[in-house]
Amino acid sequence: MTKKAWQEHGYPAQLAEQLGDKVVRCHLSPRNCKIRPGQHGFCMVRANRGGELVSLNYGRSVHATEETIETEAVFHYEPGARILSMGNIGCMLNCDYCHNWKTSQARFVEDKDVFYYTPEEVVDIAERHGIQVISWTYNDPVVWHEFVTETARLAKSKGIINLYKSAFFISPEAVEELIPVIDIFSVSIKSMDPKYYRKITKGWIEPVLEATEQVYRAGRHVEVSTLMVTDLSDSEQNARDMAGFVGERLGPEVPTHFVRFHPDYKMTNTIRTPVERLEHARRVALDMGLDHVYLGNVYDTESTNTWCRGCGLLQITRYGLNAQLIGVTPDGRCSECGLDAHIKRVPDPVAAQAPLDELPTHETYDSARFDWHGDIRAVHVQVENTGDRPQEVFHRRVRRDNPDTGWTRIALAPQESYRFISAESFNDEIGVVVAVPNGCTSSLHQVFDRAHFPTTEAAAGTQNADITPLPLYVRPAR
Fold first, then answer.
1. The pTM is what?
2. Of 31, 258, 301, 321, which is least surrounded by CB within 10 A?
3. Is the bond preceding residue 403 a cis peptide, omega within 30 degrees?
4. What is the mean pLDDT of residues 63-77?
5. What DSSP letter does each residue of 82-127 carry, written as one string?
6. pLDDT tens by residue, 237-254
7. Among the listed residues 440, 344, 454, the one whose alpha carbon sits nearest the alpha carbon of residue 383
């Protein structure tokens, strides 16, 4: 099989054991893959080359993307914060419903979707754009271990916070290497049913729960979520088992998210999770004593808001991937009664820039508009400055009842390519408009729920209206 460009060079991998005869064992995940020369591990991005374990995805990434922290099922760490999302190639699982299968499953990765970054470049992007959180996300950061730990260490030295969004099928040794450099762990527990785990994810649940306990005991900020797959894992029993794990093995203050599913990958002959099942799961978990339980991938519900569990004050309102703090002090307490809200704050948050009433008049702009439809409430906007001088691009929300929303500015360095999310944040919002000057290009990519990285432009349409994105998975011929 011909190597793709991103596979050509290997980087020395950590957590390797020499077994003799140039055979190596990888101790990154619980699989402990035994790899002979010329072979790969399950993830397909860690390989044995000449008797040495190497990482094939060091510095290989999908496009760096500015999003909000709510995208990562994190509601209790600086709500509304802008984050720089970094995803890679490969995964230690192969979930039948994976919405990032085009990048998580290495054999489907196309060179056109791979971008190359150094640790220094990632940190520089965050600093230039005033972003205080780097999120390791999308397919799964476990298989990007060397790049994540090195870059996170550099980011931490610059005062940048690191967020790790993961299915957390990982070894205890690897977790110990993450704890010193990761501030926030958002763990996706696929189900509490061991049989489901084996069949649907191709992994097993015990190491996931143990690793989650490991980072919680280490004092890191932890939030957990579970994808409620229609008719498979959206039962009351799964909600009870999830709440039991959080309450008994972690703590009732750990924010817990029940997340809506959309059909994708090998699981398209079904429907999105009925919202009433998610609401029921939330009520069950609250009745079992959890303090903070939320819904994910759901709009137009109060079950994404935060109230003080003491005096009942509404502390945070959320709509989609956006949040507004209205009743929380700078040290994370209720602004009415002073009770600890279990919300961590960034010491010196970067203030949001004021929008412009009008576009600058010294440039001519091309504009593109994307309207929300059905369950498509977010879009990635990719812009590129193809010239040799700094440029500015702009975007604004289109609202039915408030037409003058103002323009948000994004500064681009010469030759810089940048991606950012725009997500519906008001119930009267119609869509988004992007304006780019001469010398810049733009493209739009529909986002199907949070932590989805789309590889297909919006102009290509969808496979099933607003339910299943393109590209469509076609089972390979044997």
1. 0.96
2. 301
3. no
4. 97
5. EEEEE--S--S---TT-TTHHHHSGGG--GGG-EE--HHHHHHHHH
6. 999 999 999 999 999 999
7. 440
